Amino acid sequence: MDMEIIKARIQDLKRNQEAGEAQMQDMDQKKRELQATLIRISGAIQVLEELMAEHEQATKN
């Protein structure tokens, strides 16, 4: 096999690897942001459920 072809293939694979790593970092960041959003939503649900329970308790008395 021609050495120039091998060198070109290595460079192509390295570019693909760098692009994949950059995409992985982007996806990791998006995952962290989504996890934070889900935690906030969960907290909001908990607060609203507690308020609803308090209201139901108050209307029973």
What does this protein structure show overall?
With 61 residues, this protein is mostly helical. 95% of the residues lie in helices and 0% in strands. It is built from one helix and no strands. The protein has one helix at 3-60. The longest helix is centred in the middle third of the chain and has 58 residues, at 3-60. It is rod-shaped, with a radius of gyration of 26 Å. 0% of the residues are buried. The mean pLDDT is 96.
Short description:
The chain is built from one helix and no strands.
Task: Quickly list its features.
single chain, rod-shaped, mainly alpha, about 95% helix, about 60 residues
Mean pLDDT: 96
Q: How large a portion of the residues is in β-strands, by DSSP E? A: under 5%
What is the CA–CA distance across the termini? 87 Å
Contiguous runs where pLDDT drops below 50 for at least 5 residues: none
**Main sheet attributes: strand count, strand direction, barrel closure:** none
- Count the DSSP helices: 1
Present the secondary structure layout.
Elements: H1 3-60
